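Much of the work behind modern protein science is quiet bookkeeping, done one molecule at a time. The protein below has been through that process, and both of its lines are reproduced in full.
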Amino acid sequence: MNNRLKTALSYIKGHRFLADIGTDHAYLPIEAVRSGAVRQAIASDLRDKPLKRAKSNVEEAGLSTKIQIVKGNGLEVLVPGVDVVSILGMGGITIREMLSQDDLKHVDRLILSPNSKPEVVRTWLENHHFEIIDESFVRERAHDYVIIVARTGSMHLSKIEKEFGPCVIRKKQTGFVRMVERKIATLESARQKARSESERLRIMSRIETMKELIE
């Protein structure tokens, strides 16, 4: 269980039936059931090799009666009773496509961790009557990840909130602040190399926006 999975697990507690989409090794559903965070789980993937690993790990944990190993594409594997869905480690566009497969009215909570284009996921949530109730910024092995937690509701996000996350901006976790500082340093370097005044002003505007995020 790396930091990202541990953080995701903390958001699963209090629910009953987890569906972990793109489960890979099934580490998250195994720990969710073993710790009592949920009573049962589905560990699904579209690929045979991850499913084989997942099945082996579930059997080794002695949880074959509580965790179903299912081959399927995205949310097509959902069954009645699933009240929390996790989709971790996929691109934002892929997650958006998966979310569009189901009306999700029966799901109490979504736990999403896009590897890219998180703004696409947040925009989908806003447009489909979901609200973000929490987010965590996690740095793992020199990579930055965000975990988005959502439920049915409504919200209105600004452009910068869609890009970085309303809760991420508010919480200003150390990893996020350092990431923004790195981006500012890169922008400062680009500003010095700008070939035109308009380009320099555009970069300066972006720098000021980034600085406001961590003030």
About this structure: The first strand starts at residue 17 and ends at 21. The first helix runs from residue 3 to 12. The mean pLDDT is 95. Strands lie at 17-21, 40-45, 67-71, 84-91, 109-116, 130-140, 143-152.
